[in-house]
């Protein structure tokens, strides 16, 4: 899977203001900014992103996904990495 394909899958299932992905095709690191995260705890945010992947984690199409999740306000106040 390419980063463009993974980004399209996440964006299709979650309204995202910003997505950054790096990885090797199986192990991914994501930064996801979405207004859907407003009022949700970190685990709930991650569950929302995992839900966009459907069974792709179970079939090993996406082996691992490490992520940072932000609301738009949090992202606006986040220092550049």
UniProtKB/TrEMBL annotation:
Belongs to the BolA/IbaG family. Transmembrane segments: none annotated. This is BolA family transcriptional regulator. Gene3D superfamilies: BolA-like. InterPro entries: BolA, BolA-like_sf, BolA/IbaG_stress_morph_reg.
């Amino acid at each position: 899977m390419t980063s463009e394909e993974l980004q399209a899958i996440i964006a299709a299932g979650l309204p995202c203001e910003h997505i950054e992905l790096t990885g090797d095709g199986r192990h991914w690191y994501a930064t996801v900014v979405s207004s859907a995260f407003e009022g949700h705890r970190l685990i709930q945010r991650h569950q929302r992103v995992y839900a966009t992947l459907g069974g792709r984690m179970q079939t090993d199409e996406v082996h691992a996904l490490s992520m940072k999740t932000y609301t738009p306000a949090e992202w606006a106040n986040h220092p550049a990495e």
